[in-house]
Amino acid sequence: MSEAEQLLGFLTKATSPFHGVEEMERQLKKGGFRPLTLGEEWELKPGGAYYFIQHGSSLIAFRIGEHWKKGKGFRIGAAHTDFPGFRIKPNPDMTEEGYGKVNVEVYGGVTLNTWMDRPLSAAGRVALKGKDAFHPMIKLVDFKRPIMTIPNLAIHLRKELNKGVELNKQTDMIPITGMVGENVKHYFISYLAKELGVVEEDILDYELYVYCAEEGCTVGLEEEFISAPRLDNMTSVQAILQGLLEAGEGDCIQVGAFFDHEEIGSKTKQGAGSMLLSFVIEKIVEGLGGARKDYIKLMEESILLSVDVGHGFHPSHGGKYDPMNKAVLNSGVTIKEAAAQSYATDCKGVAIILQLCKENKIPFKKFVNRSDGTSGSTLGSIASSFLPMITVEVGVPLLAMHSARELMGIKDQKSLTDLVRAFYTTPCHE
Question: Is 48's pLDDT higher than 90?
């Protein structure tokens, strides 16, 4: 199966951060990785492969190389499991002239107009009444079918529509779910309870995300592109996961860190702005018989590969890009740099990645923003402030970033996966 086919398959399952983690766990177990918890003592050994899940939506997996020796550092690939969209609010049921509507709030930097007139579904987790107050039962749910849509207002009723209209997040972006009548209450909660096979009273709370229910596909005269929801950042998650599963033997400690909440700033208990990754790195060192001083020393021998999508060159808007450092779709891995350190890359890190690309014949492009423009930051600059190791920002170039559907070059997923694989497996001869 090609990298593009694996990505498209993963996208159909990763409809929420929780479902993405569930699919990663399935693949890791199949690949021989053993589950751990943060609270237990970790007794690790070379050749061992392990993972643990944090609050359902973040996952860290790692493999101790067969030829690992004390003093060999970490190679960490990091990506995020969340994506821009909408989250269903508490007390979601709204009606207007018999139409059923679901109250939602915006999650992340959404390109609002791209979500109009599309078939939408919802997925996430639901907390149910448990045996006691401190142990609610958690269930995942994915409707896996279109259950709502956000219809546009006809141009006859908004004649300035094609001149550009600012959409109101509270009034314009409310999905409709059907005709429910004026006197029906709790229709969405009732529908959710039926989907879960529980009574309404057992539903205590939920984290449900609206997602574009259209499947990904190839596009172009020669199928040069992939058009799909959630390419930001499932492209990176799939590349790191595949690279880690295929890494096999090595002389370093290979880590895949998958964080939630990057799209809203990462400063949460399962985000890259938490102490989570540093805790894990220290526990790995202790599990291999090391001490705090060894953990600190290994920072010098380790490298973090922050993997997130980059801005691809748009052929109709060339003036938005730096004249010399731009990434065309299907041109390979994008290496992102910024003087402001919104991308945490430095020249030594770039040199490492360039050599890996050249040795493995992996195409690449460097990307820098226009001097009078900015773009979003990534989790690399956040995570590296807690773990002061060399960090490099890479990813696939993307068009329509943060839209309901995004566009990438079909060749770029292979380039990214090849780089991650080489990053994990290339020996260090020091």
Answer: yes
Of 43, 9, 40, residue with least CA distance to 26: 9
Greatest distance between any 2 Cα atoms in the chain: 73
Residue 142 and residue 384: Cα distance in Å, rounded? 34
Cα distance between residue 334 and residue 235, in whole Å: 13
Q: pLDDT (tens digit, 9 = 90+) per residue, 346-383? A: 899 999 999 999 999 999 999 988 888 776 678 888 88
| Whether the Cβ atoms of residue 271 and residue 261 lie closer than 8 Å to each other | yes
Does residue 256 contact residue 236 with C-beta atoms inside 8 Å?
A: no
Confidence of residue 430 (pLDDT cuts 50, 70, 90): low
Describe the strand order of the beta sheet including 303-307 as a list of residue ranges.
Answer: 34-35, 49-54, 58-64, 253-259, 74-80, 303-307, 390-395, 333-336, 364-367
Residue 227: strand pairing partners = 217, 407
Rounded Cα distance between 41 and 102, Å, is: 45
User: Cis ω on the peptide bond leading into residue 330 (within 30° of 0)?
Assistant: no
d(CA 44, CA 34): 11
For 55, list phi and psi in degrees, rounded to 5: 55, 30
The average pLDDT across 276-300 equals 90
Q: pLDDT by residue (tens digit) across 114-139?
A: 999 999 999 999 999 999 999 999 99
Question: What predicted TM-score, i.e. pTM, was given to this entire model?
Answer: 0.95
